Amino acid sequence: MKNVTAQSERGKNPRLRAIFKHSTPYLYLAPTLILMIVLLAVPIFMVIKYSFYDNVIINKNPVLVGLENYKTILSDVRFHKAVKNTLYFVGVSVVGHLIIGMSFSLLLNNRVFGPKTKGIFRVIYALPWMFTGAVIAILWQMMLNPNGVINYLLSVTGISSTKIAWLSDRSYALGAVTFMNIWAGYPFFMVSILAGLQGISEDLYEAASIDGANVFQQFFHVTIPQLKPILISLLTLDFVWTIFQFDLIWITTGGGPVYATETLSTYIYKQGFSRFQYSLASATAGLVLLACTIIAIFYARQQKEGV
Amino acid sequence: MKKYLTVALVGLMLLAMSSVGMAVTLEFQQWWEVELPAGVLRGIADEFTAQTGIEIQLLSNPYADTNTQIAAGAATGTMADVVGLDGAWVYDYAKQEAISNLSALMEKRGYNDAQLSDQIKVDGATYMIPVVNFAYPMLVNVDLLKEAGVTEMPKTWSEFKAAAQAVVNNTNAYGWVIPLSTSSPSGIQNQFMSWLWASGGFMLRDGRPDLVDNEKLTKTVEFVKSLFDENLIAPGAYSMTEATMVEEFVNGRVAFMTTSLAHINLIRQGAPNLNFQAIPLPVMDGYEGQSGVVVANWGIGIAANSKYQDEAMQFIEYMMSPEVNARLAEAANAFPGNIYAEPDYSAADPVFVDSYEIFKDSYAINEFTGLPTSEHLMRIFNDHLQLYIEGDIKSVDSMLDMIQEEWVRAF
């Protein structure tokens, strides 16, 4: 009865009717907005807020210290080392993902192999993506053990007879974890680029061929421009995902030996869960958030231009 | 149709709500089940449920993962009701108010704590009760020593070094193994400091860091460095965890290993025919006093965020009851936390029986227990030790100076 009365009231009152009409789209959006606020906005706000206090969680009465935590972090040599390692880890991983993903997708898109062969290789190449970070870490930890398969292969092929401690030697450790990350992540690039390649019209290649373009010219002047929107999306997403890679590094090296593989994610973890300095961890996370936001703005602009 | 659906849903909700009031389920997060023979902890938990009606949900993961999950739970207030604790974690969780004051709970329930062999306290209040205690003797692969021509077990550092050298020279194995991974730096406590404590040394004085001008500690650092310099230690130490260290021993790749008696089960499972025995840790040449043996515990505590404080305390009382505690100690190859528990070690592993004799001749020690951010302290020591071994830090005095400076800041 009440509903009927309200509806008739709304029907009579043009102002109410207008409010209802304007609020309808927001009501449809409300579930998503609520989820975004709870899962994104609130945690981000809390981390930023924590970064301005002397320490939180363990300190029941935290005191506001302004930018003090940011100053401490920015003057910490271990933070500088973590930034340097992260840039190497992310840069090499993203480039590695791109090169391997592109190469395999081109192989799978060619006309030489039949659909069955392509299908088998598609599964084989995509395998690393089926494993979780922890499984990949344990797998490679065993293979890179001084007594592991990799050293055995190097020894039987006569390349090296010494037992290289890939994850324990400061000269090799960062390269080794980066290699693992490349191995773990290239299938995402491969699958996405392959989808893009299959969407490029054959006419473009035919026209290029008639104009006398060789294979390389076709690749750089037809394939790459056509894949550009996909590649930009992939590179941006991969940059952000790789910055936050934690389990692979933590399980294999823990950021060691002596900070050789310390990245921002392991640095934040140690600040928070080993030193219980949650505000310093929040300040570091705030700086990473800033870097990712810049990348996200760049990505959004590129997407807008593409549209 | 809609009407029936609504009625059915409301009925289900009411049923769910009524069942919430009936049964209490306690989450028990620990690493013990992984290290115990299959079914032991589950059996104890089920017996408790049969007696009290309180369900126990075991959340079992290896030690390092448990540590990570408890740390995350402490920060977010989502810790399991009952948690397995290491003495090294207690200070921080107590200060965070993430774990409950057990003194208050024991008093409330009228529990007689005189039966407990030890209690880990912070500011005078108990926050952890050691359920069982593990000694860290040295395990020896007897067959490897025979192959290397070593006929007598080493008693001093120089004898140990000579034996390790013989193993390296005459077999495909290494002398000793130490896990120094940054992710779990307990190797500093269990495998490094054990040399110092066995020779009557200390790293603290009056509860504060005492690393500088500490003669015994200096000699310990030099001794371990010499083992690295002479390639007597299994490669890969800087990224090795305790689990990998045990694998090295199981696979016959090292002759000596300082480890917890909790690992006897793992070694027997991994290599049923491995001929190994326990010996006291060799001591500094010339030292004739009593030796300290590293002791680690499976401690138990209650999450401050648990709604079931009373039930959780009831479960702890059950675990600490003489009969249950004795059973757990037998299964874990450990010493009981209740002084009235009488474990029957007659069927125990002979390596454990030998270790028990070693333990009785020594004194239990673990200076990291109850220190602030003790894992962080171990990590600092670990990093500087590696830098010294690798030659980045030129002298042991500089190394200890640097560590002391960082440690003092944490106190």
Describe the structure.
The complex is a heterodimer of chains A (307) and B (411). Chain A has 307 residues and is mostly helical. Chain A has 2 domains: 2-50, no CATH class; 72-306, Orthogonal Bundle (MetI-like fold), CATH 1.10.3720. In chain A, 74% of the residues lie in helices and 0% in strands. In chain A, α2 (14-50) crosses α13 (278-306) and α3 (68-74) packs across α13 (278-306). The longest helix of chain A has 37 residues, at 14-50. The model of chain A has no long low-confidence stretch (mean pLDDT 90). Chain B is of the alpha+beta class and 411 residues long. Chain B has 2 domains: 23-134 and 296-353, 3-Layer(aba) Sandwich (D-Maltodextrin-Binding Protein, domain 2), CATH 3.40.190.10; 138-279 and 372-410, D-Maltodextrin-Binding Protein, domain 2. Chain B contains 17 helices and 13 strands. In chain B, strands 1, 2, 3, 4, 5, 11, 12 and 13 form an 8-stranded mixed β-sheet that branches. In chain B, β7 (204-205) and β8 (208-209) form a beta hairpin. The mean pLDDT of chain B is 91. Chain A binds chain B through residues 57-58, 60, 141, 145-147, 163, 165, 167-170, 173, 250-259, 270, 272-276, 278, and chain B through 68, 71-72, 75, 92, 95-97, 180-184, 234-240, 244, 251, 253, 373, 375-376, 379, 382-383, 386-387, 390, 392, 410.
Secondary structure topology:
The complex is a heterodimer of chains A (307) and B (411).
Chain A lengths: L1 H11 L1 H37 L17 H7 L2 H33 L5 H12 L6 H11 L5 H8 L16 H26 L3 H9 L4 H29 L3 H6 L11 H10 L4 H29 L1
Helix pairs in contact in A: 1-2, 2-13, 3-13, 4-8, 4-10, 8-10, 10-13, 12-13
Chain B lengths: L1 H21 L2 E6 L1 H4 L4 H13 L2 E6 L2 H14 L5 E4 L1 H9 L6 H8 L10 E3 L2 E11 L2 E4 H7 L8 H14 L16 H12 L5 E2 L2 E2 L5 H15 L12 H9 L5 E3 L5 H7 L5 E4 L12 E11 L6 H11 L2 H11 L2 E2 L13 H11 L2 E3 L8 H16 L6 H15 L1
Parallel strand pairs in B: 1-2, 1-3, 11-13
Antiparallel strand pairs in B: 3-11, 4-5, 5-11, 5-12, 6-9, 6-10, 7-8
